[in-house]
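Appendix B. Raw example, untouched.
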Amino acid sequence: MKKWFLHRRRGAVTVLVVGVVGALTATAVAQSQRFPDVPPDHYAFEAVEWAAEVGVTAGYTDGTFRPEQPLSKRHAVVFMERYYDQILQAEESDNFTRGDMMVLLKAINDGTARDSTGPSTGTTTLPGEGISVTMARADWQSGYFQAAVYQLLLERLGYDVSEPAERQLGPSLAYLAMAQGEVDFWANSWYPGHHSWQAQELPDGSIVGDHLMKAGAVFRDGGAVQGLLITKSVADEYGITHLDQLHDDPEIRALFDGDGDGLAEFFGCQETWTCDDMMESMIAFNEWWHLEQIIAGYDAMFAEVVAKVEAGEPAVIYTWTPSAYITQLRPGDNVYWLAMENVLDDSNPLGLEGGEAFDQRHWAGTTDPVELDIPAEQCPARANADFCQLGWVPADVQVTANKDWLAANPAAAELFRQVKLSVVDVSVMNVEIQGGKNSDAEIALLAARWIAENRATVDEWIAAALAAA
């Protein structure tokens, strides 16, 4: 006997699968009450107990299950994936047919059928219940996973969070939208570079940055290293360790002059990402008049450079961590990090609005010089120096939020302070995304998997957020 009880509420779809397939009782259902809000007389009791027993769900971190809470389509997919992993191990299953799956998928997609019956039981009130949150995500793929993690974590606090992909923005629009209250937060700020976008004046005379606040560093193990990579075989042959050599040495310059105009070309940033302006400022600051930055769609530039590197041809490109890019262009293997002789200061040589924030000399919020401990095998300039001077400060990746929204939501504010992701973990997830798991549903599944694999740490974050409510 199959029963699907679905109804729409606040744009979400509640999916309560009760006895999805009656024959799926090989694993005994626990007789004791597992969740305080799903008592034995609840209509979904046996189904919930079964699902917890076989690993389809573990409930919320506060020990509740919240059977009446709307379930988004994305979460329904998560439960189905776990169901497949835990139960449908064989290539085929008599207990769950292809037809069954199509019926369930159509019901989830349509949000149709009849409302659930049975009494609603008491649930634990969460700080975000009844509060809708509008979040954005960056328009670079390496920021998608982080956005999905923050969305799921906020939902554990009861917030009704918008899909990040609905507002996929570059920094110029993201900070403006947050300042105007159209977006509450995002987890993709790259400082100090993004400070420049907050210098814009609003119609009321205030500055964008007046309405925003850094809410918490995204990574626990330092900033996001960024810089320029060069083809290893070419660097070895010509002894190239610094970007300056592409400007100063005519022979080396000619290697990178693809169009014969006398300028050495390197692949930089996509327009509107800020790093393109930063690179132009570096060129002006160092008076590298024989260097030219190629500015285009990043993925297209990266694909071209990968082909050049694999062919042993001269190529230089800007890149960053965490990302899947660093697994294709691998420092010490097929590329090196390039150093710079002089580091851009706060002089703003191009006179750009907010260009003073492009200063790359110090770690964020300090006067400490940036001295990266990158080995000589990855940064040849290190062989004759105490550290590798990439000319770029590792980015301080932060959650940025609207000040008023943050003040009104202390649980969310504390969550942002607590969360610290691993650069390595995020890089691994980005490899999967770039490898094909790049739909919004698949990215949400990766985020859900990461949360499940780090349950103890996540529980601590949630507990701290609940205590701050």
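End of appendix B.
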